[in-house]
Amino acid sequence: MDEIKFELESVEKTKEIKKKTRKKRKKLHAFNSLTPKEWTQLSRSVWPAKEVSSQRKWYHKEHGATFSEALAERAIKMYSNAGDLILDPFVGVGATLLAARNLQRRGIGIELYEKFVNITKNLLFQETLFNGTDQELIHGDCRNLLEWVEPNSVQLMFTSPPYANFIKQSLEDRRKTHKKSRLVIDNNSVVKEYGESKLDFGNLTYDVFLSEIKSLMKNLLIATKPGVYNVWVIKDCRNCKNGIPFIDFHSDIGRLGREVGFLYHDLIVWAQNDQRRLVLLGYPSVFYVNINHTFLVILRKKKEKK
Ligand SMILES: C[S@@+](CC[C@H](N)C(=O)[O-])C[C@H]1O[C@@H](n2cnc3c(N)ncnc32)[C@H](O)[C@@H]1O
Question: Which CATH number fits domain 34-162+214-272+293-301: 3.40.50.720, 1.10.10.10, 3.40.50.200, 3.40.50.150?
Answer without folding.
Answer: 3.40.50.150
